[in-house]
Amino acid sequence: MPELSVPADATGRRLDSWLAQTVPDLSRARWQALIRGGHVRVDGQAHKPGHLLQGRECIAYDIPPAEPVSLTAEDIPLSILYEDRDLIAIDKPAGLVVHPAPGHAHGTLVPPFRPNRVRGSDGKRRPR
After folding, report:
1. Residue 4, strand partner residues
2. Does residue 23 have a pLDDT over 70?
3. Of 5, 66, 83, 118, which has the highest C-beta tally within 10 A?
4. Dihedral of alpha carbons 50, 56, 122, 67, sign
5. For residue 7, which of 55, 53, 46 has the smallest C-alpha distance?
6. Residue 50: CB atoms within 10 Å
7. Is 50 exceeded by the pLDDT of residue 42?
8. What is the mean pLDDT of the segment spanning 106-119?
C-alpha cells in the first residue's frame, strides 16, 4: 500500500484536492471515489473527501483493479468515412448516443467498434 507524507504547508487543504495535485495520474473525481470506498486512510483512519488536512499526516491508499465493463456488439448501420488501426471517423447520425450510460445501455455508438479501454473516474474500464 503506497504511503504519502503530508507536508506542513498542506494544512487546511482538502484531502481529495491535495491527493489529485500530489498524484496527478488520478483525477479528483477518482480520488473522491477511492476515499468514499475506504481505499484511503489518513493516519489509519477513513475520512470524507472534504477532510481538511492538518499537515504531517501519513496517507496510505490502495487502488483496486478496474472492473471490466462488458459491451456487446450491436448491428447499427454506420457510415464510416475513414478507418485505420488507430482512428475511425464516422458520419454520426443526430440522436445517436455515443457512450452507454444510465438510460442508454443499448443502441449506442461505442459497442460496434474495438474501443480502447481506459479507467473512468468510477474505476471501471470504459471505452473512450
Report:
1. 59
2. yes
3. 66
4. negative
5. 55
6. 11
7. yes
8. 60
CATH architecture of the domain formed by 3-61: Roll (3.10)
**CA–CA distance, 75 with 54 (Å, rounded to integer):** 55
119: left (phi over 0), alpha (psi -120 to 50) or beta: beta
pLDDT, tens digit, 9 for 90 and up, residues 43-66: 999 999 999 999 999 999 999 987
Burial zone of 24 (CB within 10 Å; 0-12 exposed, 13-18 middle, 19+ buried): exposed
**Strand (E) or helix (H) holding 1:** none
Residue whose C-alpha cell reads 496517507 in the numeric block: 59
Distance CA 121, CA 46 (A): 20
Cell numbers for 122: 468510477
Residues ≥6 apart with Cβ < 8 Å to 82: 88, 89
Question: Is the pLDDT at 126 greater than 90, yes or no?
Answer: no
What does the domain layout of the chain look like in residue ranges? 3-61, 66-123
- Please determine, for residue 67, whether its predicted confidence score (pLDDT) is greater than 90: no
Model confidence at 24: pLDDT above 60 = yes
Q: Which helix (H) or strand (E) holds 95?
A: none
